Amino acid sequence: MAPRRKIVPPGDAPRVIDQGSVWILVAAPSIWAAHFLISYWVAAIWCAKLGRGTSLAEPRWIIAGLGALCIGAIIGLAVLAVRRYGGVFVIFEEITESSERGRDRFVGHVALLLCVLSAAAILFTVIPGMVLGQC
Amino acid sequence: MTEEIDLSKPPPAEPYDRARDEAQRARLMKVWETPTGWRRISAVNNSSVGKWYLLTSFAFFTFAGFLALLIRAQLAVPNNDLLSQSLYNQLFTLHGTAMMFLFAVPIFEAVAILILPEILGARDLPFPRLSAFGYWCFLIGGIFVCGSVFFGVAPDGGWFMYTPLSSDPDYSGLGADIWLLGLSFIEVSSIAAAVELIVGVLKSRPPGMRLNLIPLYCWYVLVVAGMILFAFPPLIAGDLLLEMERAFGWAFFDPDRGGDPLLWQHLFWIFGHPEVYIIFLPSIALIATILPTFAGRPMVGHSWIVLSAVGVAFLSFGLWVHHMFTTGLPEISLSFFSAASEAVAVPTGIQIFCFIATMLVSKLRRSVPMLFAGGALAIFVFGGLTGVMVALVPFDWQAHDSYFVVAHLHYTLIGGMLFPLFAGVHYWYPFVTQKRMSDRLGRWSFWLMFGGFNLAFLPMHWTGVMGMPRRVWTYDVTDGWAVLNMVSTIGAFVFAAGFVVLAVNVLWPRGKAPLVVRNLWNAGTMEWSGEVPDKPWGVRSIPYIHTRYPLWEQKELLGEMDRGEWFLPDAEEGKRELIITDILDARPLYVQRVGGPSYLTLGSAFCLGAVFILATFHLWALTLLFGAGFIGFTLWWLWTGTSEIPEKPEKMAGRGLVLPTYAQGNNSPGWWAVFITMTGDMTAFMGLVFSYFFYWTALPDFLPGAAKLPGFGWLLIGLALLLASWLTALAARERLAGGSAGQAMALLVAGVPLGAAGIGAWGWAAWSAGLDPTEASFDATVWVLILWMGLHLLLDAVMRLYVAARIWRKRCTPRYRADSANLTLFTHFLALTAVVIFALLALFPMLMGGA
Question: What is the ipTM of this complex?
Fold first, then answer.
């Protein structure tokens, strides 16, 4: 007779949040989204309230400064993805090991890729802020 | 002390015993049997509902395709009068609407409902009755919207229903109401499916399938269902505003009364652009599943595809204004969206490169599914490149609303969505029917469609550049578009002929044809583990998965599953059972019992459909009657089919694994479903908040003077009462857990009048300030926020009384209290909504110096 062992249902919420496993996947793109929306709002409200032809000198620095801040935060996330999760930057990934470590490395790897994509997308958003001089 | 079982080293299975195997199979068969005859409509199993969903979507596709042929016939020659202008407007509107809302999105849900549980090695999705409810909503709503064309009252304002064309009664009639209400109803079914699929991927995976082992298809389903949750609700908010203006004259889009027609465009495209990716990603997911099979190796860059799916999902929400480049927004705003539109090409391209890399490093087997997949990539890349062109503001100013855009969008959608889907039809046909399609007809249909498509749509790039506007009813011979249009029309009919060949190939009766062999294509994913002939239970026993392509990498798997050596090989209690696992590592958490065949979901969907249809014709008394019917059927369904107290607290699941038979709080899929639904609800609410700030940004005098603002004192009292009502739900949960069922019931019921008093105070604040929603956009916005809160409180009251009744009838007890936990979660969202509304009505105007 097979031994009867009991399983402890551990619940989901604490594991998901404490290990950050799922959140780190969406953190970097969320930072992109926040930067994008704030840049859009700042410029839209600035132009709507001050009218056409207004100089964009001030919002420009808000957008660029915020961009630098966000990229800094993303670099922090990338470091976390590498150090804590063991994420690597490879093309032929074969992280198919069936273990918690394998799962962490996979999440870290994808999070790292998303950090690169999000940082690039933020740079894309900053460019028009730098180029256009007025509303 | 209990310990966790190590799934990689389970105790050995008991020796095979034929008599036991047959008895188990007989019991499983009885439990999972699909009703026959006319009772079949009560079926809720994913294999039945998925098939209906698929066939219904294709029926709407055929209908919309037929409309397209009529459009092309009208445009074949200059100065044609085959169709009247009014009918032509209805045809192109209905063509776009049906293709987008009745085909492209539902077909994703159809395919996912059909194959997702099998790819996950699960018996069904966690809420089978919800799937059935969603299907019936889709069917009823779709027939209502499409049927309107036969009465000459189909919507005629274009598939994006721009205001004021759609809001001014001089330019729009019943058709606009049919569009708004019919599609809101269908969006309900999309959101229902999204909830089902998200919980399915997160919680119904087979034991052992950790995040790094999830098949690509499931990643895509998760991402797309998440996108639906954030994209569809803003449109529901927009629908609400537009219908309030149409039915009751509220001032949202009328510039004379402080409204702004551009608000509709924002709300529509916040939905509409992500929708393009909601359509595209699931089809690309089909290619990502088919390709490894014919390449005979795992996908190159599995994680890069996950990256691009997640990346596209986010970036696609930053593109909506690129549909509005010509509306006169500041150039800086346009540039942000242009930049994001270029950025999204990066992750999209990564997926395509992964596919090409996989093809290059393997020796590809030739097959009809791969033919369609190859055609899809060719067409899609072409459409993607014109997409990069129209994402540039100056180019778009030239091409906007011309046939160039028509060509672009058909290249992306037909290449990115339709051809991969046809590849999927050929690939999974044997999985569904256990028969094979004709390869010869398959090749014929491909080449007819591929050739016909390019013949029809390639010339449109030139007609567009030559100045032909989209949606134009006819043109003059001097415009110089006649030859190109004739070519397009011929191409469209060739394309249609290809589809007819495909339809014949699919529907051809193959009663006497031999059954296919098991795992016909030698695929690696779990859906091909099904026995031939098919069994209704999905999997004989639920296996332990520790690889990405189990059928390739776990050699013994099929035999072990068939002999019932894995989990839940039996149905001793006569119940349909699934294993619920955790999100990260798919460790088994508990055995979920799901509902079997039922007419309740059908009744519920029918009543809800009647509500939307009757509201279109302003038959308010009947609307209310059917609304009550809807609530009645839904409560009956919940009462008899959810959170049932098990006959024993835990059961043997096999291989030494003992699992609980009841779960509550965040262990239960129901809790996650509430969480996900309410996230969607918050997104719709955010659509209203966006509207508020949009008016404030765009209109200099949106906020009225202090005298016209709702009274701060009453708003504060209202907020206090609403928060007190929320606290009663919290206290009720605690009291119930503490064993005091009576106090819990009293607290739940007491929360109802508190909520009513709270909303009453808010209503009084607005009323006494003399706010008239038909007068000004500020007044209408205040009232719609209060209305939003009121509708939610109504739902809250019904749920409180329901849970109190459950406690009274001992269906929700101090030990088994999932209902109470789910209600509390709902009230958290309600409290948040109340605080935000208070901030908008009381605090923001004060900050801006309005008071």
Answer: 0.91
Distance CA A104, CA B719 (A): 44
Q: How many structural domains is chain A composed of?
A: 1
With the C-alpha atoms ordered A76, A78, A83, A84, is the resulting torsion angle positive or negative? positive
Q: Which residues of B110-145 are buried (b: 16+ CB within 10 A; e: fewer)?
A: bbbbbbbbbbbbbbbbbbbbbbbbbbbbbbbbbbbb
The total number of structural domains in chain B stands at 2
Answer yes or no: is B208 within a domain: yes
- Whether residue A10 is predicted with pLDDT greater than 70 in this model: the reply is no
* Least CB–CB distance from A135: residue in B330, B546, B589: B330
pLDDT tens across B516-531, in order? 999 999 999 999 999 9
Question: Which H/E stretch holds residue B576?
Answer: strand B576-581
Arithmetic mean of pLDDT, B641-646: 90
Residue-wise pLDDT tens digits, B349-372: 999 999 999 999 999 999 999 999
For B339, which of A16, A102, A124 is closest by C-beta distance? A124
Is residue B532 in a domain? no
Give the CA dihedral B678, B691, B333, B270, nearest 10 degrees.
40
- Asked whether residue A127 is domain-assigned, the answer is yes
In terms of CA atoms, which chain A residue is nearest residue B665? Answer: A11
Q: What is the pLDDT of residues B146-201, one digit of tens each?
A: 999 999 999 999 999 999 999 988 888 899 999 999 888 888 889 989 999 999 99
Distance (Å, rounded) from C-alpha B723 to C-alpha B742?
22
pLDDT at A88: 87
Q: Could you tell me if B783 and B744 are in contact, meaning their C-beta atoms sit under 8 angstroms apart?
A: no
The CATH number for B135's domain is 1.20.210.10
Two tokens at B254?
Answer: 């009328």
pLDDT of residue B753: 98
Residue B104 CB neighbour total at 10 angstroms: 25
Residues 6 or more apart whose CB falls under 8 angstroms from that of A14 comprise none
B4 has a pLDDT exceeding 60: no
Residue B639 lies in a domain: no
CA B112 to chain A, closest CA, distance in angstroms equals: 23
Set of chain A residues whose Cβ sits within 8 Å of the Cβ of B15:
none
Q: Which domain holds residue A94?
A: 60-135
- Domain end marker among B465, B481, B507: B507
The 3-state DSSP class for residue B657 equals strand
Domain assignment present for residue A79? The answer is: yes
In a domain, A51, yes or no: no
CB atoms A93 and B304 under 8 Å = yes
Residue B517 lies in a domain: no
Within a domain: A35: no
Of B762 and A18, the one with more pLDDT: B762
Query: Which of the four pLDDT bands, split at 50, 70 and 90, describes residue A19?
Result: low
Amino acid at B347: P
What is the rounded CA–CA span in Å between residue B608 and residue B160? 24
**Residue B123 belongs to what domain range?**
44-507
Strand partners, A6: B658
Structural domain ending residue among the three candidates B507, B539, B564 = B507
Quickly count: other Cβ atoms within 10 Å of residue A134's Cβ.
13
Q: Which DSSP symbol is given to B72?
A: H
Task: Give the model's pLDDT for residue A134.
Answer: 86
- Say how far apart CA B826 and CA B643 lie, in whole Å: 16
For residue A12, give how far its alpha carbon lies from the nearest alpha carbon of chain B (Å). Answer: 6
Which positions ≥6 away from B197 have C-beta within 8 Å? B109, B112, B113, B116, B125, B221, B222, B225
- C-alpha distance across the termini of chain A, in Å: 78
Residues of B within 8 A of A6 (CB-CB) are 2-3, 658
Residue among A1, A4, A5 with most chain B CBs within 10 A, to mutate = A5
Kindly report the CATH number assigned to the domain that includes residue B823: 1.20.120.80
